Amino acid sequence: SDEDTSWMEVELPEWQTAIYEVDDPSAPLHPPKNKGHEVMVYLSYIIEHYDKLPDVVAFMHSHQFAWHNDDLFAGDAADLLRRLNPAWVVRQGYVNLRCTWSPGCPAWLHPGTLVEDQTKQEEVMLARAWGEIFPDDPIPEVLAQPCCAQFAVSRDRIHAIPRARFVYFRDWMLRTELSDYISGRIWEYLWHVVFTGENVYCIKEHICYCDGFGICFGGEEEYD
After folding, report:
1. Helix/strand/coil for 107
2. What is the DSSP string of 63-81?
3. Cβ contacts of 106 within 8 Å, gap of 6 or more
4. What is the dihedral sign for C-alpha 105, 110, 116, 120?
5. pLDDT for 110-125, tens place per residue?
6. What is the CA radius of gyration of the chain?
7. Cα 132 to Cα 38, 49, 58, 125, 204, distances in angstroms
8. Up-side HSE of residue 109: CA atoms within 13 Å toward CB?
9. 72 strand-pairing partners
10. CB 68 within 8 A of CB 149
11. How far is CA 197 from CA 8, 21, 133, 205, 209, in A?
12. d(Cα 78, Cα 10) in Å, to the nearest integer?
């Protein structure tokens, strides 16, 4: 509730917003529990708006400027969204709103790892969490996509997954004994699995910028 979200109305008047307040149960939009960082909000939005989704949904953090918004946008989420090509989102179904691979690609998390890495503390908890979240799927050797839990999805791609599945995911978040931090970090590298079925989702950076945002370099060599 202390975050300034006025930039959305000022900078992006053409976007319809759904701003959740995680720490105010009396707010018009709020999740059932303040846990898992943005995960609880994203899942709650999908569950509550499943039958009235727009063509494209961008799931974003509340701040306008952040290091994980690519340098080509000067870290500005408003510039990123102004440049986003909705047709690309509809065509792809799911897109990460960070084109830069680091951190996250090409092979970031290894769910079988037993030794904790301080830069990715969630890694050692992934195998157990995966077994609970995707009990019918084998544990992958690698999970990878660009960080940091900001992405866009088409309505059709969301509707390809039953609403009950998203309720199941949120129930896991509500009942897991993992901390707010770790449970949120685990999901940072699961969204692409949910929406694409792929364990590794690393689109080449120059293609992401050109197709997704209209910033083209002429090819991979020119971009490099």
Report:
1. coil
2. -SB-TTS-GGGTTBHHHHH
3. 144, 200, 202
4. positive
5. 987 877 877 788 888 8
6. 17
7. 20, 25, 27, 11, 31
8. 29
9. none
10. no
11. 31, 30, 14, 21, 23
12. 10
Q: Containing H/E element for 152? A: strand 151-154
| Bridge partners for 143 per DSSP | 109
Phi-psi region of 137 (alpha: psi -120 to 50; beta: other; left: phi over 0): beta
- Region 132-156: mean pLDDT is 96
**The whole model's pTM is what?**
0.95
Cα–Cα dist 134/139, whole Å: 9
Tokens found for residue 162: 């039953």
Q: What is the mean pLDDT of residues 42-57?
A: 98
What is the distance between the alpha carbons of residues 140 and 154, in angstroms, rounded to a whole number? 26
Provide CB contacts within 8 A for 125, sequence distance 6+: 178, 182, 186
DSSP 6-26: HHHHHH-TTS------TT-TT
